Amino acid sequence: MKKLFAYILAVFLMSVSSVSFADDLKVGVLNFPALLKKAPQMEALSQRLKKEFKPRQAKIVSLQKSLEADQASLKRDTSVMSDKEIANLREKIANNQRDLRRLEEDYLADARAAQKKAMGQIIEKVNKLVKKIAEEGQYDLILQSETVAYASNKIDITDKVIKELEKPKS
């Protein structure tokens, strides 16, 4: 009987101590997708990448148009072309198709890599700001809202982080 009482007392004391610990715990929640959507750095990133990749995109579009023109010419003028001209045009079309595929693949790979690198820099900055806000606000725990079943708007720190992102560099 004494062991049962000691066990019940121990469980009770642990539950009381965890409740008082939870009362002192300061938790914040960060809505990361909303943060990225509203962050001014995302718009700047988008504009920079568009500008950086615009010449390559223009080259791809130009090659596509040239390829379409050659294909239309082959279809339209086959009856008046010699066998050698047809063979040359088909070879040119095949080479241009191969070049176009290669250009598109390289373009997509480079664009993804540039975006990933830039996003990494933005995420690193966000992480530093979250840490700064957590330290200044004496938060014990910051969670991402996507991993939480429910969080009150009272503990959402997303707007605080966005305001810090909007501050000019000092």
The overall strand count is 2
Tell me the CATH architecture: 2-Layer Sandwich
* Strand and helix order: HEHHHEH
**Helical content (DSSP H or I, runs of 4+):** over 70%
How big is the Rg? 30 Å
The profile of the biggest β sheet is: 2 strands, parallel
**Share in β-strands:** under 5%
> Which fold does the CATH topology refer to?
Protein Binding, DinI Protein, Chain A
CATH superfamily: Skp domain
Shape by Cα distribution = rod-shaped
**From the helix content, strand content and strand pairing, which structural class follows?**
mainly alpha
Q: Within the largest sheet, what's the order of strands?
A: 1-2
Which labels suit this protein?
mainly alpha, Protein Binding, DinI Protein, Chain A, two-stranded parallel ribbon, rod-shaped
What is the topology?
Layout: H1 2-24, E1 27-30, H2 32-38, H3 40-77, H4 83-136, E2 141-144, H5 158-166
Parallel strand pairs: 1-2
Helix pairs in contact: 2-5, 3-4, 4-5
Please sum up the structure shown.
By secondary structure, the protein is mainly α.
Structure report:
The protein has 170 residues and is mainly α. The protein has one domain (23-166): Protein Binding, DinI Protein, Chain A (2-Layer Sandwich), CATH 3.30.910. 77% of the residues lie in helices and 5% in strands. The protein contains five helices and two strands. It has helices spanning 2-24, 32-38, 40-77, 83-136, 158-166; strands at 27-30, 141-144. It has a two-stranded parallel ribbon. Helix 2 (32-38) packs parallel to helix 5 and helix 4 packs across helix 5 (158-166). The radius of gyration is 30 Å and the shape is rod-shaped. The termini are far apart.
